[in-house]
Write a structure and sequence with these properties.
The complex is a heterodimer of chains A (256) and B (246). In chain A, 77% of the residues lie in helices and 0% in strands. By secondary structure, chain A is mainly α. Chain A has one domain. In chain A, helix 2 (26-50) packs antiparallel against helix 3, helix 3 (58-88) packs parallel to helix 6 and helix 5 (101-130) runs antiparallel to helix 10. The relative contact order of chain A is 0.13. Chain B is mainly α and 246 residues long. Chain B has one domain. Chain B is 78% helix and 0% strand. Chain B is built from eleven helices and no strands. In chain B, helix 3 (53-83) runs antiparallel to helix 5 and helix 7 (131-158) packs parallel to helix 11. In chain B, 47% of the residues are buried. Classes of the chains: A mainly alpha (256), B mainly alpha (246).
């Protein structure tokens, strides 16, 4: 009698499937790569000419933010994939596969994070090179931070995909969630320059934590250990929420 | 009373479709407020040597919202063609195909202008515009919406998948924002970007709006915007019309 596959091999199959799904969307990959370069070499370069703060290089600051916002954007796509699978009725088929639903949920969130990291890995190397800190420690450390952030964002995206029922609404809400997570953070401007009323929200944003931690590694900008805790909390909350909502749906909750 | 083949019916239908989900309108206004109230204020705190940078980029936030709203027109057309397969039915209605196509584009312009009106009011208040100049501001929004509706209908007419349509939408948004004078003055643009920005409706729309602060209307800025809007609307019309021939 044949042995049932191990949990690790199932996880790998799920992650591989999500990787293939993204690779089969060449337009998304090409356009997001193009946007990254435009953000970096057009927007950041030109705005750097306008910023006149002694000792502050906006291009270097923004370069890290560009990677963080790109990985956020890619990690959000997993929700769209799940939404589409639900609409096409593919989720029912996936449920019939011979493994537990909790493994399925875990695998999808990991799949979203892994593919986002693979996609952004060369961008991170380029940014580390441009910022003069192309060392294994800086790059590998940044990968860990990016992976943790992408896992949390995947969880958030899965949560939204499971809560929203209308396609048009989902599209607009995802766009807003992406805009809010990046703009209400220190990804593209320092926390100090964000309006005072927004600062508390931006300070606890996972995108701020990820940006600050990578800036510590790549630019040497000091930051506190609490950033790690905030990032971990965000992942725990949304990974958990995404799992709960997806699980509820898988168990025949409220499909329409 | 409008006749049964009046374009008013087409426009009314598009308005009903668009305003059926008011939640979307709220989200669009929230997006505008994030753009203006968070990004605008943060960037203006960073950039201090160029006058009031917040007022400089404020119209851009509203024009970005207009871009999102205008692309909903293309999305509606794309869904009719590809997802719901209702275009064939719509073409059996008692309207000429050309009139139908123009009405769809016109309704896109109108509903975007209406959607962004709260934003236009906010900018008008920030700029202390008189009522006549506010109306000129609305006209600028309408012309810009026309240009983007044209682009969105071209995308909807060519794209066979949602992935392709959303990619064209994102590309258009990036082109409109980063290759224009939305964030930076024309004087610092590299030559290649400067050339591209001259063919960008965002450049002329944002410059026209900024110019309203001086209390006069500069026709030299409105003319290129009108020209680009008409050209893109006509291109959108041609592409949409092509999808109606079997």
């Amino acid at each position: 009698m044949s042995q049932s596959p191990s949990a690790l091999s199932i996880l790998w199959v799920l992650i591989e499937r999500d990787l293939r799904t993204l690779v089969k969307s060449p337009w998304i990959l090409i356009s997001r790569t193009m946007f990254f370069f435009i953000q970096l070499f057009v927007f950041a370069t030109l705005v750097n000419k306008l910023v006149n703060i002694p000792g502050f290089n906006y291009f270097e600051f923004y370069s890290v933010g560009a990677v963080v916002s790109t990985i956020t954007s890619i990690a959000f796509i997993i929700g769209a994939d799940l939404f589409e699978e639900e609409e096409l009725g593919l989720l029912d088929y996936l449920l019939s596969l011979p493994f537990g639903h909790s493994l399925f949920v875990f695998g999808r969130a990991l799949g979203g994070a892994v593919r986002a990291l693979i996609y952004c890995a060369p961008m991170m190397i380029l940014v580390a090179y441009l910022d003069g800190m192309l060392t294994p420690t800086a790059v590998l450390g940044s990968y860990v931070v990016l992976f943790v952030l992408a896992t949390g964002i995947s969880g958030l995206s899965i949560t939204l995909a499971m809560v929203i029922r209308n396609e048009n609404r989902f599209d607009v809400v995802i766009a807003m969630a992406e805009l809010a997570t990046v703009r209400v953070s220190a990804a593209i401007y320092p926390l100090y320059y964000i309006p005072k009323v927004i600062q508390p929200a931006a300070a606890v944003s996972p995108v701020t934590s990820a940006s600050d931690l990578i800036r510590l590694l790549v630019l040497g900008t000091p930051t506190g250990a609490y950033e790690l805790v905030e990032l971990a909390l965000f992942v725990a909350i949304f990974f958990g929420l995404g799992s709960v909502f997806l699980f509820r749906k898988l168990e025949g909750g409220r499909f329409e | 009373m409008a006749g049964s083949n009046s374009p008013i019916h087409v426009i009314e239908r598009d308005f009903r479709v668009f305003f059926a989900d008011r939640f979307l309108l709220v989200i669009m206004f929230v997006n505008f407020m994030i753009d203006l109230g968070v990004s605008g204020l943060s960037l203006s705190a960073l950039i201090t040597g160029y006058g009031n940078y917040f007022l400089y980029i404020a119209p851009g936030a509203n024009l970005v919202t207009a871009t999102v709203a205008s692309f909903q027109s293309g999305r509606d057309i794309w869904r009719e063609r590809i997802i719901h397969d209702t275009q064939s039915y719509l073409l059996t209605l008692p309207f000429g195909k050309s009139r139908f196509a123009f009405s769809r584009l016109f309704s896109g312009m109108l509903r975007t202008t209406l959607t962004t009106m709260p934003g236009t009011i906010v900018i008008a208040v920030l700029y202390h515009l008189s009522f006549p100049l506010f109306l000129v501001g609305m006209l600028i929004m309408m012309l810009f919406s026309g240009a983007v509706c044209g682009l969105s209908v071209v995308a909807a007419s060519m794209a066979s998948s949602l992935e392709l349509f959303t990619t064209v939408r994102s590309t258009a948004q990036v082109y409109l924002s980063f290759f224009s004078t939305q964030f930076y003055p024309a004087s610092i643009l590299p030559p290649a970007v400067s050339i591209l920005s001259n063919f960008n409706p965002m450049t002329w729309a944002v410059e026209s709006f900024r110019d309203l602060q001086s209390g006069v209307v500069d026709v030299a800025l409105l003319a290129p915007l009108t020209g680009l809007a008409l050209a893109l609307l006509f291109t959108g019309y041609l592409f949409y019309r092509r999808t109606m021939e079997y």
